[in-house]
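Hello,

I think I submitted the tryptophan job twice by accident. Can you confirm which output corresponds to this input? Input:
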Amino acid sequence: MKKISLTGIKPTGSLHIGNYFGAIKPALDLTKEYDARYFIADYHALNTVKDPAELEPSIREVAAGWLASGLDPERVIFYRQSSVPEVFELTVMLMAFTSKGLLNRAHAYKAAVQENLDKKNDPDAGINMGLFTYPALMAADIILFDSDVVPVGKDQVQHIEMAQDIAQSVNANYKKNILKVPQAVVTENVAIVPGLDGRKMSKSYNNTIPLFTPENHLRKLIMRIVTNSQCVDEPKDPEGSQIFLLYKLFASKGEQDALAARYRAGGMGWGEAKEELFRVVNRELAPLRERFNAIYADRSGLDRILAAGAEKARSIAAATVKRFRKTAGID
Ligand code: ADP
Ligand code: TRP
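Support: Only one job matched these inputs. Its output is below.
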């Protein structure tokens, strides 16, 4: 039997190049080797997105984004988290094995508390229980499907470690391995995709290149990348420039070597470097964008694919919940 790969993406805004290289592509690569279950973490998004006019299109965008990037729903079980109520049943069961101290240590929660303290606010201000219990819901997402590996960006590794802790607590209590203990898989060379300002590309920093943005906007964004004040003649260090770091994600090895040599030789200005970057980015994204637009527009087609995926997911999920309930004495 093949091992299982599972991951989810939160629909909290437009997909960007960081999501593509850090999450979507590595996950799709794993589908060659693993049985995959990939989903849209819409209840996770509800913690922060309270406007339905924002959430609904974002869910469809993430769904269409996965499909446009090459996910084959015949081979991958592809669903919305909210369509699998067993996730929430398992979350409640796992909570009984999740120490509050563990959740206190979660980076996202700690950062929110620290921000409040820094502003001399009440430490709980603006923090909902969804944020606090986020790692328990995520553990349920993972454990429910007997996942072996979870492809994620570096920032998510702590959550996978928490899922391991929680699964191990359950197994230790019942003295049998009723839950699979998952492993994180991080793609090392693209672990952090830089944004337009050189920080990690992230919606929260407003520095993203959206994956499906129209060509003219793509060009505008690339031209906006922050550079230093070196003039055209000066030799430049390719590895020190986020233009080149982004270029490496899209260009062949030969193209990378050739452009790196031009950086080092001097005589190439940032404007030209950006033009080169735009060329390779658009080369890869143009066909993706076209597929995305067609899939996004076909609302009923998309709903059918997600409904079929949810049905498959629920039959697997029901078996895990049943196994746990039986072991727990809740039959
Ligand atoms: P954002 O930081 O924009 O809110 P998310 O937290 O929704 O992005 O990330 C969704 C997935 O994409 C996660 O697996 C995350 O690790 C990955 N990811 C996000 N930004 C990047 C980035 N700049 N580089 C690599 N992976 C990323
Ligand atoms: N927390 C993940 C993120 O912010 C999304 C997510 C939710 C997830 N459930 C998951 C990722 C289960 C992997 C497995 O990116």
